[in-house]
Specification:
With 159 residues, the protein is mainly α. The protein has one domain. Helix content is 83%, strand content 0%. The protein has helices spanning 2-29, 33-93, 96-122, 126-141. Helix 1 runs antiparallel to helix 2. Belongs to the SNF7 family. Residues 43-70 form a coiled coil.
Length: 159
């Protein structure tokens, strides 16, 4: 609000400066040099006020930006706080001992499955293994029939 009030004040001073310059010109033409000089001094003072007002507006805008950035920082910190609380609750639910127990159970299950696989793979006798290898060799040695190749010459390419 203060920034807007300062901008309105600037507009009033700018209008006043334009009027005073015009009046000073009229006074000079009328031969009233002293009054014109006094009016120009007043105009110069108002120009200095205008510069100060511009600096104040700049300071206010910088402060508004700082406030907005601080609000964003506060939201980030609040988000981090909530995230940290959530992580702590999750850690309470899942302890290190629980994780170690689950990993041990998983490793036991994998070992058990490996033993089952070995038993099943071991149920084939050596004769079965030999028969499987013979059949594999027979399949790979069978002749594959290829289609006949045409005997006519290929047509010539026309450039």
């Amino acid at each position: 609000q203060q920034r807007d009030k300062l901008k309105q004040y600037q507009k009033r001073i700018n209008l006043s400066l334009e009027r005073e310059r015009a009046v000073a010109g009229q006074l000079l033409r009328a031969g009233k040099k002293e009054k014109a000089m006094l009016l120009l001094k007043k105009k110069r003072y108002q120009e200095q006020l205008l510069d100060k007002t511009e600096n104040q507006i700049s300071n206010l805008e910088r402060m508004v930006q700082d406030i907005e950035f601080t609000q964003i920082e506060m939201k980030v910190i609040e988000g981090l706080k909530i995230g940290n609380e959530c992580l702590n609750k999750m850690h309470q639910v899942m302890s290190i001992e629980e994780v170690e127990r689950i990993i041990d159970e998983t490793q036991d299950a994998v070992e058990y499955q490996r033993q089952i696989d070995e038993i099943l793979a071991g149920s084939l006798t050596e004769e079965d293994e030999d028969a499987i290898l013979e059949e594999l060799n027979a399949i790979t040695q069978e002749q594959v029939e290829l289609p006949e190749v045409p005997s006519e010459p290929l047509p010539e390419k026309i450039p």
